Amino acid sequence: MSRLGAVRLRGALRTKSGAAGLSIFSNSVLIALKLAAGAITGSIAIITEAVHSSIDLVASIIAFVSVRAAAEPADADHPYGHERVENLAAVIEGMLIVIGAGVIIFEATDRLVDPPGEIDVLGVGIGVAAFSTLANVVVSTFLFRRARELRSPALEGDAAHLQTDAMTSAALLVGLGLVEVTGVVEFDAITALLIAVAIVAAGIRILSRSSRILVDEAPPPEELDRIEQAIASAGMPEVAGYHKLRARRSGSHRHIDLHVQFRSGTTLERAHELAHELRGAIEDAIPYSDVLIHVEPESSVTDDDEDDQPLRHGRL
Question: Is this structure's pTM higher than 0.85?
Fold first, then answer.
């Protein structure tokens, strides 16, 4: 590869779609290797690993499509943008993980009830499992890093898929090793069941985290604390207080809105100017945020009104 080609490849991998494309490529290669190894050895654990990787491939394609859709600018039909497509993709990826676990449990249980006579050519399966473990560790680590840097739920879900695949490939390696050492073929199916347990746990974790965002769960308390600290640190004597502070997550962004009360005698023009400055301070404290401030007179809310609100409020 030329130097220019290498530079372009590194540049592509720095983007969300480039990282998702790498996941598609790695999963495609691993599926082919696992299917070949499963056919040669007759190992149900290897075959179920191929099924798991196939589900990972679907998840990677979903991640690839979703990050491209989420990057589309806001329009008349989607005035808040398309970033929540990534959260929806993460939910679908979590569901696929659980479905994959169900397939593995069914096949492994069937093999425990009616075990095969023997598993052949174990060296091939062990080699494929070792390569799969290494490849998935490398790619999932890269995806997790890109997901954090780009604040991408879809890439995070894809990375979780591959991390689970790495763990299950390692378990497969152990199971095939036990069959090789002991000659007990049931270890193959037992390993597959253990793999399924790990997959279910990962799927439920992704489903829970992404579903909470889709139903507008508030960001972590630490983020709301930083918003309040930004308001207090702004040092605006005209600002008397704030209330109805709330925020929600959408993809990598935060949507924040609050009501700000201004002291008597503050002109509307001055209040508008200060509201813009306060918005900038909050957006500096919370990157990738969109802040909406409603301007009110100081007399609009009493202490009793604020005490009855479930949302954060404060006096300055």
Answer: no
